[in-house]
Amino acid sequence: MSQEKPQPSIPDGDPNIGKELFTDYCGQCHALTGNNESHEAAPYLKGIVGRPAASTNFKFSKPFKESKVIWTEQNLFEFMKFPQGFIKGARHPVTVVNEQNRAHILAYLKSV
Ligand code: HEC
Asked: CA–CA separation, 7 vs 21, rounded Å?
């Protein structure tokens, strides 16, 4: 058994389906745009793909601030599956087990 973590291969996603899933799974906390002044529950996610973790003015917890994660597509794909496994000590309430659904949400996040 190899100890190496293979890069997960991400299925093609549909941003329109992703938008609906985002609304259902993420939208109660996350806004897309903004500076977090009107939406304090969670950091905004517009432009998240390619951004370093905890780089907006949201008051992030220590595990996120110290994670040194860059939100590449692969990292977001893995994070959604099991957040507290991906960032040690993180408390993130949502897991999206279905791989195809994660791909749809990712496609949507890439489009915003
Ligand atoms: C119940 C509220 C809630 C829901 C629902 C939620 N999140 Fe979050 N999310 C948060 C909070 C709060 C943080 C900041 C966590 C911290 O600082 O510890 C966060 C952080 C993140 C981050 C890191 C942002 C950054 O700038 O580093 C990503 C990415 C993320 N969430 C994606 C998602 C996605 C995708 C979904 C839907 C599948 C989702 N979240 C659903 C509350 C939520």
From this structure: 24
